[in-house]
Amino acid sequence: MIGIVLTGHGAFPNGMLESVQLIAGEVKQVRIVPFKEDQDKLKDELEQAIKEVDTGSGVVCFADLAGGTPFNVSSRVAATKSNVKVIGGVNSPMLLSGLFQRELHLDDFINRVLHDGKENIKEFAVNKKEIEESEEGI
């Protein structure tokens, strides 16, 4: 099973895990690594979290912002490991999808969660035609 590490600025990773657990229930093989200010401490904590969730199928570090410190530090750690990938810009649909796809090959997992994360970004738009039709029946 693919291990998951959630990282981000401040309380972001804690909130993300809490949110998905309300929907999916308790999850295994997931660690959170919040970033406060110390990059060296973040690196050490990421390395430890990766070690804890790695069972041989690979690990994906989900970071809040592509290009942010948690993403950059995760990427530097992943560059030294063949079975660790990093995704920046995590959202709830992406993470939820990943929690249910953890038996996939690591590359297939990455493709699936990126697809699902992008596909679930929507804008609310009022359908004026439906509103006008419903108002005619009043």
Could you characterize the architecture of this molecule?
With 138 residues, the protein is an alpha/beta fold. Strands 2-1-3-4 form a four-stranded parallel beta sheet, sandwiched between helices. Helix 1 (12-24) packs across helix 4, helix 2 (39-53) packs across helix 3 and helix 4 runs antiparallel to helix 5 (106-119). Helix 3 (69-78) links the parallel strand 3 (59-63) and strand 4. It has one domain: Rossmann fold, CATH 3.40.50. It has six helices and four strands. GO terms for molecular function: kinase activity. Keywords: Cytoplasm, Kinase, Phosphotransferase system, Sugar transport, Transferase, Transport. One of its GO terms (biological process) is phosphoenolpyruvate-dependent sugar phosphotransferase system.
